Each structure stands twice: as C-alpha cells, then as structure tokens.
C-alpha cells in the first residue's frame, strides 16, 4: 500500500534492543534514504549497541538511550526521562519509525511531535497505545526479523530491493587483526576459523566440553582458530574454561582474544576468517554481515526469525514474497546460501525460554553432539 508523505526533512528510527537486533535494521535505513534522499536520518538505540551502526553512511546521526538510568532513584530517573523527551521533541522530527514495539519507544514516538509515526500493530502495552501512531503495519511473525523490520515501512510504500545488512569496519580495526595474525606467523595458506562460543544468555551456549572437542578437531587439522568472547566476566570465564579443556594440542595455532576485542574488531576477525562457528549471538550476525560463512548452534530461539542473514539475498529476489522466509522450517538443521544453522527438530522448539523449566540449561542444545557438528563444518572448510 502506497502513501503520500509530505515535507519529510528529519526522520527518527527507534530500535531499543540488543546489538544483533540493531544490526538487522540496516535495510530500513536504506529504504528511507532511497525514498527521502534529502532527509536527515537519525537512529535512536540503547547504549552499548551503537557501534554496529557507526560508519553507516545512510545514517546521519546516532542518539543513545543511556540504559544506566535504570540504576537511578525513581525521581532521578523520571527527571532524566523528561529531559530526554524534551531533547527529542526539540529535534523537530517529521517522521518516527518504531522498530522496537515496546512502551518506551511508543512514548518517545508520540513525544517527538512528528507528523507521521509508524509502528507495528500490537495488542501488547499500555491502554490506547495504538493511538500513539499514525500508521500501523500488520506484523507477520513468520518472517525473518530483517523482513519484519522492513515491513513497518514497506507496507506504506517505503521499500528497497537491496536487503544488505551492512557492517562497517574502520581501517584501524582491520590493521589490528592483521598485526595479530602477523604476530602469530599466520600464513595465507592456513584456514582461519573464528569461534565465539558465548552469549550474554548462557542458556544459548553449548556444553564446554563439546565446544572444546570441535576446537581440538580444527586445530589437529592445521586450522588457525581465533576464540573470542565479550568482555563480560561470565562470558570470559566460560570461554577460558573451554580453552582449558582444549589442552595443548596444536596450541601454536590457537589465538585467545577472549574479552579483548571491540564490536568492530570482532567484525574484522570474521572478515579475514574462512568460517565463523558459534551460538546464536550478535557476533554471529556480524560474521554473516561481513560475508563469512556461518555455522551456528541454535537452541530455544527461532531460526526463522534470527538465522544468519546472507547479504547475497539479491540472488534470491525471485523468491521474495509476502510469505517468503530464508529459513522456512520451525526448527531442525537449515541452510541459507553460505550459512547453516544446527538445531534439533523437536516439537517444543522454538520455545524462546531461558532453558528448560527455567533451569538456564537448554536440553535441545546439549543434545547436539560434536561429531554431527564436525560433519557439517567439513562441508564448509576441509583441512
């Protein structure tokens, strides 16, 4: 459905979620720039997620919602929220695009004073929330999140044929990883595998001993393995435990960068790698965005929503329709172009829960065995 939007000079796109969620909004910015080439486009994201958008030439400004205000007293937090909303309104936005769907983003959209306020139709949230928006799109929960994001605007005639999820890497960060590879005497003949075994949600993580077994297998066959994790204490500890289980087998080929990299540097590592192997996480999405083949382990998450996105999606353009999804099944092992997701085909998947019965342990992940993972990795990188 097409719609006439008049006098659009300033646009605010709101995505108050996590790093991977923010990254997968990229085609929305492209569609807006193609439709309104002279408009200034601003992104509003949570603190700690902004790096995945930095360098994107389709975005003129990035505003940051400071998540640390949650630790303030009620009065201090209220005051900060009011000042923030006043600042948003002072920007004079003509259009807001709410890709979050939460109550806070709805309030920000309304408080902006924008003439056009686009969002998803939903029964969730505060009473009267639907009246906050001027245009509500019909959500389709069967679509990949990249396409769901785009639907918020495409249902009103703002779209693009280029569905690339861009991730921009500064030259300094490319030099960073090149210097590390040089330090370890890595040669061009050796395959590089980037392994990021952790997630901020530990129920998405595989058994330590299983991950260590796959790493050993890769090292024993002469592959260079770079292991990373976020700087979070729990993630670093988990990654270090995995490395302790690997032992000294071919240790000269193992590079430990756990907790030592930025978001951009993670992208630079994946960019020079022949394969990314890990769990459902933001680094998985970053690896896919830089064009590295991904083998990912999924537990309770929906692959049809969150599977690694292939930027050669234009090759599949003839398939794209209102009902198309690169991962058409509810669960099980699925491949989309150069990416493969390993997941059990159990009826309970996806449950979206933090482990079975709140245990923080996902049996569907624990049931995946190293030998079947290795067989799939062999198809991507044989060494």
From TrEMBL:
Coiled-coil portions: none
GO cellular component: cytosol
Gene3D superfamilies: Glycogen Phosphorylase B
Single GO molecular function: ADP-heptose-lipopolysaccharide heptosyltransferase activity
CDD domains linked to this entry: GT9_LPS_heptosyltransferase
Protein's UniProt keywords contain Glycosyltransferase: yes
Pfam family, one: Glyco_transf_9
GO BP, one annotated term: lipopolysaccharide core region biosynthetic process
Transmembrane spans: none
Keyword list, A-Z: Glycosyltransferase, Transferase
InterPro entries in the record: Glyco_trans_9 (IPR002201), LipoPS_heptosylTferase-III (IPR011916), LPS_LOS_Heptosyltrfase (IPR051199)
Protein known as: LPS heptosyltransferase III
Source organism (scientific name): Dissulfurispira thermophila
């Amino acid at each position: 459905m097409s719609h006439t939007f008049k006098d659009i000079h300033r646009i605010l796109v709101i995505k108050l979620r996590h790093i991977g969620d923010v990254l997968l909004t990229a085609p929305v910015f492209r569609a807006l720039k193609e439709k309104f080439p002279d408009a200034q486009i601003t992104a509003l994201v949570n603190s700690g997620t902004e790096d995945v958008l930095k360098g994107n030439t389709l975005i003129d400004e990035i505003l940051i919602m400071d998540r640390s205000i949650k630790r303030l007293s009620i009065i201090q937090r209220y005051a900060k929220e009011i000042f923030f909303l006043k600042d948003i309104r002072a920007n004079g936005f003509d259009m807001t695009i709410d890709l979050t769907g939460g109550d806070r983003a709805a309030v920000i959209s309304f408080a902006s004073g924008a003439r056009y306020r686009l969002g998803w139709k939903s029964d969730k949230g505060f009473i009267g929330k639907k009246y906050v928006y001027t245009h509500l799109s019909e959500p389709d929960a069967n679509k990949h999140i990249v396409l769901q994001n785009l639907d918020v605007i495409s249902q009103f005639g703002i779209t693009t044929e280029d569905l690339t999820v861009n991730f921009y890497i500064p030259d300094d960060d490319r030099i960073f990883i090149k210097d590390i590879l040089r330090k370890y005497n890595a040669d061009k003949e050796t395959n590089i595998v980037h392994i990021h075994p952790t997630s901020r949600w530990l129920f998405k993580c595989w058994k330590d001993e299983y991950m260590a077994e796959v790493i050993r297998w890769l090292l024993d066959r002469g592959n260079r393995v770079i292991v990373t994790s976020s700087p979070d204490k729990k993630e670093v500890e988990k990654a270090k435990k995995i490395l302790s289980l690997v032992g000294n087998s071919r240790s000269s080929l193992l590079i430990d960068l756990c907790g030592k990299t930025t978001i951009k540097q993670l992208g630079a590592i994946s960019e020079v790698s022949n394969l990314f192997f890990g769990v459902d996480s933001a680094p998985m999405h970053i690896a896919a965005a830089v064009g590295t083949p991904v083998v990912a382990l999924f537990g309770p998450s929906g692959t049809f929503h969150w599977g690694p996105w292939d930027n050669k999606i234009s090759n599949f353009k003839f398939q794209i329709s209102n009902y198309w999804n690169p991962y058409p099944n509810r669960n099980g092992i699925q491949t989309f172009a150069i990416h493969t997701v390993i997941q059990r085909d159990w009826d309970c998947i996806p449950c979206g829960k933090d482990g079975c019965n709140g245990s923080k342990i996902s049996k569907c992940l624990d049931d995946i065995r190293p030998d079947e993972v290795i067989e799939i990795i062999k198809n991507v990188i044989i060494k």
